[in-house]
């Protein structure tokens, strides 16, 4: 139970969002409580969840929190709340109350400029819902996030979760043309615009991408969209790691234009019933003749290197969905998921490390970014893998893990020269440190 001194002025909040849009912690479904608790350090008390329905309500709620020393945990559907660091209340600043501010009911499609290939939405709209709407006019948003059925666009931006098709379309921040957000004082700010050719103002879109709700609460987003391609096909090569590395290098240096190029660890290959060895999975999406021709050329590369080479067409969507489910487990379990980065030409060697022999790993061949998934691993082994990634010009971030693991190590592991700049940015955007405090890089 929440002590009397830690209770909010619920009546005042009800005048902002209405009684039906506030849930006290003790009245929340236990499953939802568990989901939210994965983002909060132990012994920190959550008071309630508030669901603003308009940008004005969101602004007023944040202003109330700023005026009453309330800490805010921003969220959408909560599908990625278990990613990253843990919110911690700083007792020296007299923050006593934690409010979860959910944008799940800020879920409208504001404008779809079909001819301009842009769409403007509120942050709580679900990725799957938006894709279904865009598909009706032959368009799509070029992002392939984890938990695609439940993920919201605000959460995808906050966690910078692009997925495999970044090989062709680049990162999630490159899809973002404009943003509106509520500052930590409750005022609304904007960056970018609603057209593709836009150079006005600071590039707040890139700054907010991957900020995990520590700089402001997103209230509106404008994305570029693309036409749906005529055809799609996938080639899978499996075999000895050095030959997979050669095939990947040959592909990336060729004139072929895949939308996805992913390297798979041996155990992930086995989990997907693709054979034995390290895997390379490559997707082509364009006109049907080009898909067939490009796939044929890659199959020839695989055969020349004595790799097990397979072409998927009718059942390829099922294969990619199964791959995503394997590497990104649902939250609420004891498994550990890490985001990593290495120099691309060291990706195969990274996936062959002993720690991954019985676990799962995927690295995007073009960028060197990827995810690792472990059934069980010690903090000491995680730190050894982090040191390896750093020695290869990269990083290792612990996204999802049991609380006891996150409490034993720094989930971000970043201590480079950009940290001071990041802290100054946080101070400018959130001087009272009420937005998801101490959960980000360097305790930000």
Short précis:
The protein has three domains: 10-104 and 428-443, 2-Layer Sandwich (Uridine Diphospho-n-acetylenolpyruvylglucosamine Reductase, domain 2), CATH 3.30.43.10; 109-227, Uridine Diphospho-n-acetylenolpyruvylglucosamine Reductase, domain 3 (2-Layer Sandwich), CATH 3.30.465.10; 231-408, 3-Layer(aba) Sandwich (Vanillyl-alcohol Oxidase, Chain A, domain 3), CATH 3.40.462.10. It is built from 15 helices and 19 strands.
Structural topology:
Blueprint: H1 10-17, E1 22-24, H2 30-37, E2 46-50, H3 55-67, E3 70-75, E4 97-102, E5 109-113, E6 118-121, H4 127-135, E7 139-140, H5 153-159, H6 166-169, E8 176-182, E9 188-192, H7 204-208, E10 217-224, E11 226-227, E12 231-239, H8 241-252, E13 260-264, H9 266-271, E14 278-286, H10 288-304, E15 308-312, H11 316-327, E16 336-341, H12 347-351, E17 360-364, E18 369-374, H13 379-391, E19 395-400, H14 403-408, H15 419-429
Parallel strand pairs: 2-4, 3-4
Antiparallel strand pairs: 1-2, 5-6, 6-10, 7-11, 8-9, 8-10, 12-14, 12-15, 13-14, 13-17, 16-18, 16-19, 17-18
Cofactor: FAD
Organism: Trichodesmium erythraeum (strain IMS101)
Keywords: FAD, Flavoprotein, Oxidoreductase
Structure, explained:
- It is a single chain.
- A hairpin with a 4-residue loop joins strand 17 and strand 18.
- The protein has three domains: 111 residues, Uridine Diphospho-n-acetylenolpyruvylglucosamine Reductase, domain 2, CATH 3.30.43; 119 residues, Uridine Diphospho-n-acetylenolpyruvylglucosamine Reductase, domain 3; 178 residues, Vanillyl-alcohol Oxidase, Chain A, domain 3 (3-Layer(aba) Sandwich), CATH 3.40.462.
- The protein has 444 residues and is an alpha+beta fold.
- The radius of gyration is 22 Å and the shape is globular.
- The two termini are 29 Å apart.
- The strands form four sheets. An eight-stranded antiparallel beta sheet has the order 15-12-14-13-17-18-16-19, sandwiched between helices. A five-stranded antiparallel beta sheet has the order 5-6-10-8-9. The chain has a four-stranded mixed beta sheet with strand order 1-2-4-3, covered by helices on one side.
């Amino acid at each position: 139970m929440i002590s009397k001194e830690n209770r909010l002025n619920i009546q005042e909040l009800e005048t902002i969002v209405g009684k039906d849009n506030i849930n006290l912690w003790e009245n929340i479904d236990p499953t939802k409580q568990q989901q939210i608790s994965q983002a909060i350090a132990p012994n920190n008390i959550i008071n309630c969840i508030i669901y603003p329905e308009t940008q004005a309500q969101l602004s007023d709620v944040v202003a109330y929190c700023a005026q009453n020393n309330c800490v805010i945990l921003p969220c959408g559907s909560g599908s990625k709340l278990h990613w990253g660091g843990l919110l911690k209340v700083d007792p020296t600043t007299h923050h006593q109350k934690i409010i979860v501010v959910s944008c799940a009911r800020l879920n409208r499609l504001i404008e779809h400029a079909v001819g301009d290939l842009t769409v403007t939405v509120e942050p709580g709209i679900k990725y799957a819902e938006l894709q279904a709407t865009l598909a009706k006019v032959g368009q799509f948003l070029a992002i392939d996030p984890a938990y695609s059925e439940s993920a919201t666009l605000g959460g995808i931006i906050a966690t910078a979760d692009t997925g495999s098709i970044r090989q062709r379309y680049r990162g999630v921040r490159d899809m973002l043309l404009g943003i509106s957000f509520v500052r930590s004082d409750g005022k609304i700010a904007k960056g970018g615009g609603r057209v593709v050719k836009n150079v006005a103002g600071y590039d707040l879109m890139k700054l907010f991408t991957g900020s995990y709700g520590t700089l402001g609460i997103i209230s509106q987003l404008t994305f570029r969209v693309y036409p749906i391609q005529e055809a799609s096909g996938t080639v899978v090569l499996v075999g000895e790691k050095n030959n997979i590395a050669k095939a990947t290098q040959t592909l990336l240096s060729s004139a072929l234009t895949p939308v996805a190029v992913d390297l798979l660890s041996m155990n992930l290959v086995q989990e997907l019933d693709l054979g034995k060895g390290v895997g390379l999975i490559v997707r082509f999406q364009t006109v049907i003749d080009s898909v067939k021709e490009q796939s044929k050329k890659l199959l020839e590369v695989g055969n020349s290197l004595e790799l097990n080479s397979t072409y998927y067409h009718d059942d390829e969507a099922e294969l990619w969905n199964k791959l995503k489910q394997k590497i990104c487990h649902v939250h609420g379990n004891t498994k550990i998921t890490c985001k990593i980065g290495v120099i691309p030409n060291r990706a195969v060697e990274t996936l062959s490390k002993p720690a991954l022999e019985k676990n799962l790993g995927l690295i995007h061949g073009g960028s060197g970014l990827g995810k690792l998934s472990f059934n069980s691993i010690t903090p000491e082994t995680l730190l050894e893998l982090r040191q390896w990634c750093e020695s290869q010009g990269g990083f290792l971030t612990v996204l999802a893990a049991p609380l006891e693991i996150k409490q034993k190590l720094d989930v971000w592991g970043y201590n480079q020269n950009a940290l001071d700049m990041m802290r100054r940015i946080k101070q400018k955007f959130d001087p009272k440190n009420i937005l998801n405090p101490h959960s980000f890089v360097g305790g930000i």
